[in-house]
Amino acid sequence: MSKKFVYLFSEGNGSMKELLGGKGANLAEMTKLGLPVPQGFTISTEACTQYYDDGKVINDSIQAEIMEYITKMEEITGKKFGDLENPLLVSVRSGARASMPGMMDTILNLGLNENVVEVLAKKSGNPRWAYDCYRRFIQMYSDVVMEVGKKFFEELIDKMKEEKGITQDVDLTADDLKELARQFKAEYKAKIGTEFPSDPKDQLMGAIKAVFRSWDNPRANYYRMQNEIPYSWGTAVNVQAMAFGNMGDTSGTGVAFTRDPATGEKKLMGEFLMNAQGEDVVAGVRTPQPIAQLAQVMPDAYNEFVKICGILENHYKDMQDMEFTIEDTKLYMLQTRNGKRTAAAALKIACDLIDEGMKTEEDAILMMDPKQLDALLHPQFDAKALKAAKPIGSALPASPGAACGKVVFTAEDAVEYGKKGEKVVLVRLETSPEDIEGMHYAQGILTVRGGMTSHAAVVARGMGTCCVSGCGEIKMDEANKKFTLAGKTYVEGDYISLDGTTGNIYGEAIPTVPASIGGDFDRIMQISDKFRTLQVRTNADTPKDAEQAAKFGAEGIGLCRTEHMFFDPERIAAIREMICSDTVADREAALDKLLPMQQSDFEKLYEALKGHPVTIRFLDPPLHEFVPTEEADIAALAKTQGKSIEDIKAIIASLHEFNPMMGHRGCRLTVTYPEIAKMQTRAVIRAAINVQKAHADWKLVPEIMIPLVGEVKELKFVKDIVVKVADEEIAAAGSNLKYEVGTMIEIPRACLTADEIAKEAEFFCFGTNDLTQMTFGFSRDDAGKFLTAYYENKIYENDPFARLDQNGVGKLMEMSVKLGKQVRPEMHCGICGEHGGDPSSVEFCHKIGLTYVSCSPFRVPIARLAAAQASIKFPK
Ligand code: PEP
Ligand code: MG
Q1: What pLDDT, in 10s, does the model give residues 439-460?
Q2: Which bin fits 401, alpha (ψ -120 to 50), beta or left (φ > 0)?
C-alpha cells in the first residue's frame, strides 16, 4: 500500500503531532471531544519532507490524494469545491510539530472566483460579506502564495476609504468591496504578469505549496534556530472548511488564553472583534474588545466558549491558547494549543497545576522550558519599549539578559564611567583577561570577534553579564574610539542596547527592568532537586561568583580556571617576572610571590562552597596571554627584570605561536616548567588544610585537575610532580587530608585512550569547549565567521560550541566514560565546557552516566531543572 499523506480530522488524535503537526493533531483531538470544529483534513509533515525531496514540487500522487480528501470534505459538508450551487470555501494553514507562532502563513476563503462570489452573494443575500471574503482572499493569496506584498493592497484600501470619506473597513459597502476585488486582481496581474487563478484546485495547490515553502522562510529559520526545532521535521498543512466571522453583526472572531500568559493568573484572557475575519484581531486595523464583553454582545456563544475553555484545559491539563469564530451566532473552534507564556507565568502555572491536582510534580517539571529561566535571572528590556525598537544588527547571543548604556571602548573607560555610577556597554574587537575589571563595571559587552566560548562569552556568562559576541558587521576603529554599524557611526558616550538572549543590537537606549525571582522559582527548584540524579556544579574563579552559584544551588565547583586569578595588577607583575626568568630559581622566586595569593583565593572558594567539592584546574593558557603589549608596560617590566627593552621584546616574540590554541598550553606548560604545578599544588593543599582545620564537620577532598592531556605518560609526569609536593605538604602539616588528581578530557586522543588515562586519572571532566574545537577542527574563537553559511545551507543547525554535538563529540564522551570506568569503576566524571548549562546537552550527560555537570553560576538553576527533566524522561 502506498504511504498515506492525508488525514481527515476525524482520523487523527492529539498524540499524532509528529505526523499532523500541533494544529492538526489538536483539531483532530477537538473533533474527537465532540467540540464544534469546522471539518477538514491535514496534509502530513511527511508530505512536506517529500515536497523538498522531490525538488519543491507536490508530486502527482500526493496531489491526487489531496483531491480525494477534498471529495471527502464535500461529502461531510454537503458543499462542493468551485460549485455554483453550494460552494465549499476553505482555509489553508500551516502547523508544525512544535508551535511556531506567526512564523508561517494562512490563507482564508480559498475556492472563490468571479462566478462563485456571485453565487455566494446571491444565495446569502449578503453581497457585502461575499465581496469582503473575495477581496481578502485575493489579498492573502497574492501576499502569501505569490509574495506580491501586503502593502500594495493596503494602499488601495486606504485610497478607497479616503475617497469615500470613511475610516473603518466595516464601513465599506458591497460595491466598494467588489470594486476593491477588481482593483486587487488588476494589481496582481500588474505585478505577476498573469491573471489571478480562478480554478479552486490551482488555488489550493498554490496555497499548500506556499505553506511548505514557508517552512524555509527566513522568519521560520530564525525561530527554529532559536528554539532548536530541527529543519527535518517539516510542517503539516491544515485544510479546513471556512467558518465566517465577517457575516455581519452576529458574527465575529477572537483569540483567548485560559490563564494570563504574562502572570499565569487563572482567568480567561483574550480579545474579539465582531464582523471580522482572521488576522483582524491581531492586525490592529480595529481595536478589539476584551473577551469578557462577549458575554453582553453574544451571551450564548460566550457561555459555550467558556464551557469549552474548561473542557480543553481539563483535557490538556495546561493553559490553552485558542482561536474561535462565531458565524451567525454559532461558535466554531479553529485552534487550541498549549499557550506560550512568560517565565514568571510558566512557574506559576506549573505550581498551580500541581495544587489543582491537574499535574503530578514530574509532569509539572516536564512542562517547563529550562532556558526560559534566564529571563528571571537577568535584567530584561521593558517589553513595550522593546517592541518599538528596531535592531541595527545581531550576532551571537553569548550571555543572556538585557543591557543599556553608553558606549565605551576600553576597559579603563568602563571602570571610570562605572565608578561615576554611569551605565556602560563595553564594545571591543575582542576581550582579553586584562579587561576583567572593565567587564565587571559594564552592563553589557559587545565584541566584533569571538564565538560562544570566546573569552568575552565565557567570562560574561560567569558574571551573569549580558554579552553579544562576534558581530563581524561592525567596522571598528578602536584607536579613535568609534564604530560603524548599519551605516551609522557610534562614538564614546552614545547609547546602545544589547539583548544577550537573542543577540540583537539596538542603536538607542531601551529601558530595562531588573531580574526578579519569587517563591514559585524556589519551589520548582526544590522539586527539580527531588528528581534529578545528576549533580550540578559551577564554573567559578572568584569567591563572588562561587557565592552567587551557591545561592543558586551549586553543589560544588567543577572548574576553577586559575589563570583568571592572575590578572590583578600585583599578580600579573609576578607572572611576567616568572615568564621572563632565565633560571629555575628565578622562576621559583617569582612563583613564590603568587603562592600566598593563590592560597588565599582557594581558601575563599572552599569557604564559599561550604565543604562541597572544589575542582582546581591548573594553569591552562599559553604564556603569551600574560605578557605586556603596551610599550610602557614593556619598559616597566624591563626595569623590574633588570633587562633591556630589546631583551624583553625578544622574550615576548619567542612566545609567539602560529596556533596558540594547539600550542604550548595546558599540561604542556608543566612538562616544561614543573615549578608552576608545584606552586599551584602547594596553594591548593595548604588552602584545604587550613579550611579543613576551621571546619571540622566538612570533609574536604581537593580535586586537582590537569588540562589538555592527550597521553597517559604526560599525565603521569605531571601527576608525579603534584603527588610529591602534595604529600610533602600534607606530611609537613601533620594532616591526613585526602586529595584527587584527575584530568580534563578535551583532546580526542584522550578519549581514544581513556582506559590508559584512567590508570592515572582519578576523575575525568570533559572540557567540551576544546573537545568540540579539536573534534571539528574549528577554532573556537573564529568559527562564528563561517558557521552562518553552514546554518544557511543547513549543514549545521546549531552552534556546536553552544549545543553539544551528540553524534560526534558526544560519541567520544560516551566512549571515554565506558573505557575509563572499565579501569576505574568508581571514578566520577563531569563536564565543565559551556555545554554543562545547555538543557539538551545536560540531558545527554545524564544519559551517558556523568556524575555532574558544571556551568556558569547563572545557569545553575537551568541545569538543575534540565537534569530533573532528564531523570524523569530517562530514569536509571
Ligand atoms: C573546555 O575546554 O571545555 C574548558 C572548560 O576549558 P577552557 O574553556 O578553559 O579551555
Ligand atoms: Mg579547555
Answers
A1: 989 999 999 988 887 788 888 8
A2: left
Instruction: Compute the distance between CA of residue 103 and CA of residue 461 in angstroms, rounded to an integer.
Output: 30
627 near 589, Cβ under 8 Å?
A: no
Distance 229 CA to ligand 2 centre (A): 29
pLDDT at 826 over 90: yes
582 Cα: distance to centroid of ligand 1 (angstroms): 30
Active-site positions read 455, 832
749 Cα: distance to centroid of ligand 2 (angstroms): 14
pLDDT in tens, 644-677: 999 999 999 999 999 999 999 999 999 999 999 9
Do the Cβ atoms of 477 and 561 come closer than 8 Å? no
Atom 6 (ligand 1): residue with closest C-alpha? 767
Q: Reduce the DSSP state of residue 472 to 3 states and report it.
A: coil
The mean predicted confidence, pLDDT, of the chain is 93
Ligand 1 centre from 458 Cα, in Å?
A: 9
Tell me the per-residue pLDDT of 145-172, one tens digit each, with 9 for 90 and over: 998 888 899 899 999 999 999 888 888 9
If DSSP states are collapsed to H, E and C, what string results for 213-265? Answer: HHCCCHHHHHHHHHHCCCHHHCEEEEEEECCCCCCCCCCEEEEEECCCCCCCC
- Among 454, 458, 537, 559, which is best to mutate for testing ligand 1, by the most ligand atoms less than 8 A from CB? 559
Ligand nearest to the backbone CA of 835: 1
The answer to whether 536 touches 852, Cβ cutoff 8 Å, is yes
Give dist(CA 170, CA 150) in Å, integer: 19
| Ligand 1, pocket residues at CB < 6 Å | 453, 559, 561, 620, 746, 767-770, 832-833
Q: For ligand 1, pick from 561, 705, 772 the residue to mutate: most ligand atoms within 8 Å of CB.
A: 561
Q: Please determine, for residue 285, whether its predicted confidence score (pLDDT) is greater than 90.
A: no
